């Protein structure tokens, strides 16, 4: 009887430690619950398929610490390789922290400027939980996609933020429409002048 009880406790502890791993290390009401849940699922898939830990911290403020001290609190227990997307609302700080190994997998500047910054609202009033969730999730998903591409695996819980073919086609259509409008404008202007 005592033996079965020990096995039960061991199984419970093992399942909690296995499935209880959190990739949202801290969320001070900055990210929507649904977004945080999706991040957990996506980060777990990234870890299972690549061995890279992809984490996020979203804070209201630094609570009297400087940025490096606060980041160190979260980094100290993470195992290499990992990536930590770190956001502090009051200080308006976004940092993508990588280890030496994970830094080789993608360009942090591209993710920051192409997938996070364009979605950041201009006004502090617009820095709502929904908007914060949107730009952090967009950056998080792009990082996940880049890690997957580096490891040549496919993620079923992500939709690619890097649809280069769609982007190129859209740009070409817009340029073609602009060119046609210029021709029409020139044609109408020439007819009026005669």
Automatic annotation (TrEMBL):
Organism, as annotated = Helicobacter apodemus
Q: What is the lineage of its organism?
A: Bacteria, Pseudomonadati, Campylobacterota, Epsilonproteobacteria, Campylobacterales
For this UniProt entry, which segments traverse the membrane?
172-190
What is the protein name for this chain? Answer: TPM domain-containing protein
Keyword Transmembrane helix found: yes
Key words of the record: Membrane, Transmembrane, Transmembrane helix
**Keyword Membrane belongs to the record:** yes
């Amino acid at each position: 009887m005592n033996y079965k009880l020990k096995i039960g406790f061991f199984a419970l502890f093992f399942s909690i430690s296995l499935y209880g791993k959190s990739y949202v290390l801290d969320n001070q009401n900055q990210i929507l619950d649904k977004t945080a849940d999706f991040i957990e699922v996506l980060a777990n898939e990234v870890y299972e398929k690549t061995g890279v830990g992809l984490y996020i911290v979203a804070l209201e403020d630094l609570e009297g610490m400087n940025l490096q001290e606060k980041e160190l609190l979260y980094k100290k227990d993470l195992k290499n390789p990992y990536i930590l997307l770190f956001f502090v609302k009051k200080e308006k700080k976004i940092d993508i922290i990588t280890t030496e190994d994970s830094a080789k997998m993608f360009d942090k500047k591209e993710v920051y400027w192409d997938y996070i910054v364009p979605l950041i609202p201009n006004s502090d009033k617009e820095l709502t939980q929904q908007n914060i969730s949107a730009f952090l999730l967009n950056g998080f998903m792009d990082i996940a996609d880049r890690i997957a591409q580096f490891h040549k695996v496919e993620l079923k819980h992500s939709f690619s933020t890097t649809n280069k073919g769609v982007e190129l086609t859209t740009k070409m259509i817009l340029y073609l429409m602009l060119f046609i409008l210029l021709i029409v404008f020139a044609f109408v202007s020439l007819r009026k002048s005669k």
